[in-house]
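Interim report, section 4.2 (structural modelling).
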Amino acid sequence: MNTLAWVGRKVGGALVVLWLVASAIFIAIRLIPGDPAEAIMGGPGSQASAQALAAARAEYALDQPVITQYLLYLGKLATFDFGTSYSLKQPVTQVMGEVLPNTLWLSLMALAAAWLLALCFSALAMRAGRIGSQVGNLLEIIAAAVPHFWLGAVLIMLFSSALGWLPAVDNGTGHGLVLPILTLALPLAGFLTQLMRDSLSEAMGSQFALAARARGESRLKLFWRHGLRHAALPALSLTGWAFSSLLSGAVVVEAIFARPGLGRSLLSAVLARDIPMVTGIALFSALVYIVVMAISEGIERMINPAGESR
Amino acid sequence: MVIPLAHRGKSLLMQRNSRSSRILAGAFALPLIGALLASCSSAGSTGSSTQDAKPVTGGTMVYASGDAEPSCLDPHVGGNYPQALVASQFLESLFTKDSEGKIIPWLAEKTEVSEDGLTRTITLHDGIKFTDGTKLTAEAIKKNIEHLKDPNTASSTGYLAVGKVVRVEVKDELTATLKLSSPDNALLESLSMPWTAIESPKALERDQATNCTSPVGTGPFKVASWEHQKAVNLVRNDDYVLPVPNDQRANSTSYLDGITWRFIPEAATRYAALQSGEVDVIDNAQPDTIASAADAGLGHLDAPRPGSANRIELNSSKAPFNDQKVREAFIRAVDANTGVGALFFGTAKRSYSLLSSVEPLGYSDEALFGTDTAKANTLLDEAGWSERDAQGYRTKNGKRLSVRFPVSTNQSVPAEQSLFEQFQAQAKAVGFEVKIDLLDLSSWYGALAKHEYNLVSAPYTKVGPSVLRVLYHSDSTVPAPSGYFANNAQVKNDKLDKLLVQAEETEDEAQRASLYEQAQKIVLEGYYVLPLYDQQNHFLYGKNVHGVGATTAVSSPIYFDTFLDQ
Amino acid sequence: MSEQTLITVKDLSVSFDGTPAVKNISFTVQAGKVLALVGESGSGKSVTARSLLGLSGGTVTASTLDICGHDARSLSDRAWQKIRGNTLSLILQDALMALDPLRPVGREINDGLKEHTALKSAERKQRVLEVLKSVRMPEPDVRAKQRSTELSGGMRQRALIAQALVGNPQVVIADEATTALDSQLTALVLSQLRALKQQGRGILMISHDLAQVAHLADDIAVMRHGEIVESGPTQQILEHPQHDYTRKLLRAVPSSVPRFTALSDLGAEETTSPARKIQDSEQHSPALSVKDLSKSFGKHLAVSSVSFELPRGKTLGIVGESGSGKTTTARMVLGLEKPDSGTVELLGERFSPSTASQRQNLREQMGAIYQNPLGSFDPRYTVGQLLTDALSRGKSKRASEYRKPITQLLEQVELSADLLARNPRELSGGQRQRLAIARALAPKPSVLVLDEPVSALDVSIQATVLDLLDRIQLETGTSYLFISHDLSVIEHMSDTVAVMHQGKLIEHGDTASIFGSPQREYTQKLLSAMPRLR
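Predicted structure of the assembly:
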């Protein structure tokens, strides 16, 4: 179908998904025990008087019937009004805007790093013998399975405490980014390598690879001209998912490395039962996921208009 | 006051001993005598070359806190310990504690109370300015207390602290009178805390959001900027005046140019940053890192918080702990000494008191808490829990001897959680089923509010023995509109109530001491509480940092005398 | 340029990990002449072709391996790269896969130029278009920007040939270049190769299909198990084969072989006027009667108003190219697709796909055999279990109950009882297909639908399967609906033939008339392209 129709479909689909996510969040949050009014007044154990609590409820429309609250909520969302954070008393969009670039930057760099690592490992794996291939496979699986909190702590212990090569927290120089990026990128790279390796070896052993070699191409050129594209294809279609998994990994990584970002904000918001903040960040994550998926689908279409999976 | 001891770091387990020393307390406190030092028997800072180094001006110190970043820097709002830690640098209180733990005036010059105890007059020092240029006058006292009592401020700690103040009248430029609803001999202690610190009235007139980002005070530092989730940037207050002058300090501004106040919640990262020199001082140091700190040449400040000790309280309002025999049986069954010694590697000293060791009026009776499993078993038999079920737990009339223990992962560090697990095993041996629920802070408060607990550990930081009234008076079993109540042990004892009220109203020091002692005895002998150790408050600092040790009345360090190697 | 020897091979051996695949073969390729290397799978012919390009992947030894003056026994990688595409080039079998589906075909062709010439980008573009024109690609500038998946079969083949020609090679190796192509495309490729031959290039054709190479090759070498068992000029090989294997191969080619004449040793004893176990077909309704069958997929009209009858005990061959609608028709007959309109009658009864239970009963009267049987076997089952499953029809599955029928079935298809415990994956292609036949015969159906049943098989195996099918028809009277694109197979196997083109059945009649005097223009065109051995 033509591009305009495709874009239109994507946008329409996105709106539906966002609406569903917003509703799911609305329901989920209302299932969490605890009085939102308390959270507004500074958390449990605050000395808020009954009047203050009532005032808070009225201000945030918490005393209205659920349907009214739902409609108000949707109405506000449509105008990008995510409300005011209960704990920070600032507009949610403002707080998010401050910390968002950090998380986006971190995730993008981690994504790029993961891709780079995966391509290198795939290329290396091509030249490995049988034993090398098995070892590589095992390493990839381990890398993909390792949880972020463990990896981050180990990297700090190794590179910061023991060797002193890299700082544990951001100290103004770019070095502070290396460990967090590695922590996010390594598991993803393990996963991507598994995908790429299969596609790559399939491509390199295929008929067109043979034909290309018969034309006089060296193995290296074969890799560049043909192998890369085919290797990248499955990884590309998963990039949307990969990026969103990086966003959720950012929650842990930002906490470990004390970096400002959406993940950290989300963590404190959940603990403080800061509903507007949680809602804002969750919706934003959904939006990011949708956008990235659409972009990667678009790129895939450009590379592979026929929709072949090979 | 509720201190959500928010977000202590998590620890790994390791070892060693902290060498506390009063040497430093003495050597360094001397220049500051008549000023500030929250001392107690084990408080003190150890560090290499602290005594030999000559103070140098300059440099910005980097501080990394393991607590969650406060949502508001003004400790009037809410009122938790992380706020106190940072506000201690730029705000000062009317009163403070000296090295012996006695309350002395600070911003105030002198104070007196009327015969009937209902009027407290406070006179301020002259010539002290806020960092916005305005002068410190009695008007400030009035405005600050009104700010605390204003529901819009949403103060919890400060609000409770000035609970008995009805109104404040300004007599002259430097004198204010506080009218009280009933005599309050804990008022000065209450006014020594950062949560009742004095801010510029002009600054208080701004909207709360603005005031939260940069409260204006009289302290040695001031807030330059706050980058959320990154750092609070403090700079030297060039117009700082020591309220109580001091020969040792020629000019009375801080040595440090400023402090970068960061937040690193993950304990391993925080310590790694200290080791590598990225940060200069950290708080919430875990037992294992304290132990290895000495070997690494790092300095250590051990400053237990005032108020209650860290203890386990038994809910006496419902079965099975409504029976004193069962309470004692539980307490006798567990072996806290071994656990504390092993899990904290000597960094925490066993306490048998309801109060922190920095409280002079604390009473303790070690004999009450000796581990005695035989006695525990006997008591349980006597209490009627003589049958056992298939899993080995005791039963009575078909009901199992089961107790719930919600544990807040925010407040209980891993070492403490392990301690509780040890207790769980030891209690099982005599027939208790202890169910430990690890909960986040909000859920934990929720469980308490719903009375879904039999055991709980909820430390309370407050200056002075008046904390006992907060914790053990029967009024404290009545929930606030939010559902919160402080009397977790649900002690409802008329005699105790009378003692606690009286103790707060008498002006006779000796009588006060005696009344509080009697009160503590009732609670301890009723086996409502199992005291464990002081509220731990450890700071570690790098080799290049000197002059650490001075603290406020709530044991939060002040870095006025601190300097860095250049 | 005539009689110049371009490639000389003497005592070529190729082995993989010690296992020899090619043993001491010798041949030459001459300018302006075509050498065909003919053999079945496993004969080593493809390995031979690739070793001429240095791409065999095994250990190559030879006393002489001369490629246009280069001693190919000791070429470095770089030297090889200079030769490949330049001096000799390769045309592979499947144009869809031999061109990178992610890249425009123009780029693929361009690559060859990049490797071997110093032409600039614009010049290269020009050259690409020239080459495409020379293989008669319509609208070459448009096609060059498209990927192989976007092109039709014919255009893909042309692109494939173009990329082999762009370096102006002296020798062209065509490795199974016409296998799995329908006759039109086969004719296209063969005519291209003929043109190349006339240009004076040397051609090495690898094939398993003697009929196809017969008209183009000047010399034929027959390979078997890595050795050349016989070689010589084409006429000599075809008319006076010396070696047993060559004779067997020649016999197996169905081209122009009369109905029921055995192609292999498996064939029926009697070859003339066989006694067919059938009732007089006029007294009973036909086995299959299809009327006005139509089916569209979206906007595409796959089958349009197709009608035919299959008399009892006979074979109706449906022939057409890919996309003609023959498979869709077969699926509708089997009840796997619901026709948009039209009816199917099986043994006189309406066979309507909407009633599942009726379908179930009637299904037993119909069996199906496909091109690739492996896909239709449950991978968990052994041979014995598959047959038990087919015999039991969903009832009791105890193998013991069915031992006798299973043995009978195996005998019928000439499979040894040793194979009962094996998994079909372990069987050869021919064995699998025979197993599929056995399974299809288990419920003793009246009609068998066979969709390209032998297209994936080697010629000699194909011969055994076709003979087997004939014998079974004689013994049991099963009617066959035989679908194929291979005209010679259809001619040999069918009593009546239906020709399909673009969804329509354009001609229908008995075999002799259709093949002898085709009426419709399309049929004539189709038949003219059919390679004949005899």
